[in-house]
């Protein structure tokens, strides 16, 4: 826990750090960070505030895996890092092992679930379900009358439609051996509209696994609602923290809803 008498939101918070060519894709506005583009320094600042897990989202291809390994090794002593590289691709079981050996707590898979599910299954069999996280990048699907008709899974960073509904996709993640699921609403990324709670709950019900609510958080209240309204076990935040708009101290002081 965070060191307080009761658990707080910091205990279920997973900050996301977007990385490209060895640097954060945007300078952070968090105070106390000397180099605002340095992902290792940023993650250490998160750890100092009580954060236990982060998502390192490397936008680069596997040709730059050495840079990813360096950053993972730099943050591993401080936090549990879930790592995504090249939009959730793992070209081989050995490649997945490279990230884990560098110090990653788990590797996130997304695109490879569609393009190479056998490798995902082999990775969970070799390393264990707790070392592989399935990420669902979903967009709302509308019926012919403008109404809501579920969600479609997208890959390649939420850009390419697969035509697959999130519910069977979530079941596939569980069948492949993933130990946790990130439910990311790509429609809401960067909007500040809050999480898509119906999406989160759909994946909680479909997988029976711990689910991370992702996409759209802007406030501490949004984080609370991710747990209470969405049924998430964890909540992911990116811009609201990275910009410095919401302080880590305020998150740390906010109790978990329902006395969890």
From TrEMBL:
Q: Which domain of life is it from?
A: Bacteria
InterPro entries, alphabetized: Aldolase_TIM, His_biosynth, IGPS_HisA/HisF, RibuloseP-bd_barrel
Record protein name field = Cyclase
Q: In which pathway does it act?
A: Amino-acid biosynthesis
Write down a Pfam family by its short name. Answer: His_biosynth
Whether Lyase counts among this entry's keywords is: yes
Q: Where are the transmembrane segments?
A: none
Assigned protein family: Belongs to the HisA/HisF family.
Q: Which UniProt keywords apply?
A: Amino-acid biosynthesis, Histidine biosynthesis, Lyase
Q: What is its EC number?
A: 4.1.3.-
Q: Does the keyword Lyase apply?
A: yes
> Which organism does this sequence originate in?
Saccharothrix tamanrassetensis
Q: Name one GO molecular function term.
A: imidazoleglycerol-phosphate synthase activity
A GO biological process of this protein is: L-histidine biosynthetic process
């Amino acid at each position: 826990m965070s060191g307080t008498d009761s658990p707080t939101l910091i205990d279920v918070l997973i900050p996301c750090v977007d990385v490209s060519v060895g640097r954060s894709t945007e300078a952070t506005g968090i105070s106390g960070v000397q180099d605002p583009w340095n992902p290792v320094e940023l993650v250490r600042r998160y750890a100092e505030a009580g954060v236990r897990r982060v998502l390192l989202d490397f936008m680069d291809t596997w040709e730059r895996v050495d840079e990813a390994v360096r950053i993972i090794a730099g943050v591993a002593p401080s936090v549990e890092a879930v790592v995504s590289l090249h939009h959730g691709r793992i070209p081989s079981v050995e490649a997945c092992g490279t990230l884990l050996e560098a110090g990653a707590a788990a590797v996130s898979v997304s695109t490879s679930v569609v393009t190479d599910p056998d490798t995902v299954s082999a990775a969970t069999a070799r390393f264990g379900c707790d070392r592989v996280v399935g990420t669902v990048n979903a967009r709302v699907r509308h019926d012919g009358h403008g109404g809501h008709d579920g969600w479609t899974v997208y890959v390649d960073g939420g850009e390419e439609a697969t035509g697959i509904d999130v519910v069977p996709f979530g079941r596939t993640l569980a069948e492949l051996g993933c130990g946790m699921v990130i439910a990311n609403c790509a429609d809401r990324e960067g909007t500040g509209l809050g999480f898509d709670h119906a999406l989160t709950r759909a994946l909680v019900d479909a997988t029976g696994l711990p689910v991370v609510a992702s996409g759209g958080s802007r406030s501490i209240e949004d984080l609370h609602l991710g747990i209470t309204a969405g049924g998430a076990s964890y909540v992911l935040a990116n811009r609201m923290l990275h910009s410095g708009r919401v302080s880590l101290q305020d998150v740390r002081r906010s109790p978990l809803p329902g006395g969890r």
